[in-house]
Amino acid sequence: MLMEGTTLTLPHDLNLIILCNKRIMLDILFKAVSATLKEFAQNPTRYKEGGKIGFTAILHTWDQKLRDHFHLHCVIPAGYLSNDGDRWIHSKKKFLFPVKALSRVFRGKFIEMLEEAFQHNDLIFPGEISDIGTNAGFRKLKKQVFSKEWVDYSKQPFGGPKQVLSYLSRYTHRVAISNNRILDMKNSTVTFSYRDRKNDNEKKLISLKANEFIRRFLLHALPKKLMRIRHSGFLANRCKKKDLLKCRKILEQDNIPEKQSNKSA
Fold this sequence. Notes:
By secondary structure, the chain is of the alpha+beta class. 38% of the residues lie in helices and 25% in strands. The protein has helices spanning 15-20, 22-41, 44-47, 99-119, 135-146, 161-172, 210-218, 240-250, 258-264, and strands spanning 3-9, 51-52, 54-62, 68-77, 79-82, 88-90, 152-155, 182-186, 189-196, 202-209, 229-233. A 5-stranded antiparallel sheet has the order 7-1-4-3-11, sandwiched between helices. α2 (22-41) crosses α4 (99-119) and α4 (99-119) runs antiparallel to α5. Mean pLDDT is 87; it is low at 258-265.
């Protein structure tokens, strides 16, 4: 079963709102991504028939400089299970779904869910974002973020299970910064390395005052019990056992031992 990676990112205009409302805003992020991917899989105009997709979404909240950068990394099979559960529908394109269209639908669904939370008074807008908490301020924010192209990215299908596991391992158990990137701590200053994404991933150094380093690191503390890795569709816990068995039989992989299958999923 070929797999591909997709990253869906929120615009930085929303960062302060997210930081003040982490639990509800990050839940909206997961829900909007899930609803978007499921809608594309059910779109009969593009694929002639709809089906059931499965994917794993992993939350990341940082960039290389420890700044707030909210996005989901999704690992998705390059196909999906037919609605009748009897066939596997392979992707016929370079990517399972068109990236630009996926980005726009995701943007619409996220903003719709955000507005619903606003109308239900589920969000707080303290301090410097208090203006956004007014009807006029929220309308201005909506117009601002809707006018932008949200940055989404899809990686071509992986070559095999080892590549999938390698990709997942880079995201599932990382914290905002690893010890080996911290190069020096003296005179109340922390120096660490980072990759400059805008300059061909060139390795560079940055120095921050200790209080700023701690502030940035704490930006990425998550609310208690918030799940940062979630499985959806035919990989969801409530239906994984039945649906994965169907997928393996259709793809003639039903001889995979159960324990090995669970590790691969």
